[in-house]
Request: fold
Amino acid sequence: MRIHPSSEREFERLYRESYELVYNYVRCRMCDDGAVEDVVAEAYLKAARSFSKFDPARAKFSTWVVTIAHNCMNDHWRRTRQTTCIDDVPESHFAESDGTDVVNDRDLVDRLLGVLDDVERDLVIRKYLLGYRNVEIAKELGMNASTVATKLANALAKMRSVAVALNESQSE
Reply:
């Protein structure tokens, strides 16, 4: 199915505007960079095929594509039945930084997100990476906005306590 040329230009514009956000969302949820690329490509392919069904009155394009990407991740995990033994996870996901790498923020974010359960991680990513408001998150996930706020506060407290412990262990 081919998109109408004017719609194709609009899709390309929205793709360029949302790609980094969608990529980062998927990257925060998956460890395998190759799988991240595949899932993001699959999500945008599905979005292009069903672009005529996109309704900007219901959601932002980025929200729509993140939802598609989320479903593509689930499909990927179901297809691959991918499970990882904790011993097989690269040490860089857990090891403390020695301070020599300038790009340690990514490792720290991965470590802090790693202490959260799936729901907490999804909420934090939607709020702070994707920039959604609590009301938008609540609507998308079928929750009450105050429940979202409470769960986010608990997740941030959990992340803060780990960050403080890491900072204290680096000071010693």
Q: What stands out?
A: Helices lie at 5-29, 33-49, 61-80, 105-114, 118-129, 134-141, 145-171. The longest helix spans residues 145-171.
